[in-house]
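JOB MANIFEST
job_type = single_chain_structure
chain_count = 1
residues = 228
[input]
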Amino acid sequence: MSESPFGHRPRVSVQAEVAPAPTVDASAIDYLKQVYALLAASLLVAVAAGFVGMHTPFAFEHPIVLLLLELGAFFLALKVKNTPTLFLFTGISGFAIGPIIAIYIGRGLSGAVGQAVFLTAAIFVGMTFYAMTTRRNLSMLGTFLFGGLVILLVGSLLNLFFHSSAVTFAISAAGAVIFSLYIAWETQMLKENPWAVTPQEAALSMYLNVINLFLSLLRLLGVLGSDD
């Protein structure tokens, strides 16, 4: 027995306190490889479509039409769970995002676009690594994140009428936090429950996390870089 500053307690060896590192079985590894391959391909499709959208007048002139097409493609991808419907949605999504990127570049905020891309990639890698290696159970985050997402959507809709920079900043900051945590939460769920959903469904969900994280960071950096 040895005395510690916090009272009498037995000395415990460091080796006894270290829990074994979490492992990933072969089936989960194969599943995750498929998910991330589809995610990478989806992002490439979105980037290519976004570049086209940046230079297409239709994308600037008909945002409501694009929104309806995007929603239709999203629900189709949820119903018909295959790779073509996944790429159809990500292509329309990227095409719709193209004008947003063009507007930021036109306002002299191309640096914010580059920073948002870098931060999104860094956060994605960091959160994925954390979720794959942590011994902490992240399942309890699900309810909290869903509630935060609902509040985020309501706040965004209300801000369409108020156009407040302060509210935009708050919503963007909250969105960056929520979608960062969603990446970690969903990664752990996919690791621990492989094949519970198809790789296409998982890639679609993760794509939405990545894109919404990017857009949240872009708006946040845009507010910080604005002269208004």
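[summary]
The chain has nine helices and two strands.
The chain has a mean pLDDT of 89.
exit_status = 0
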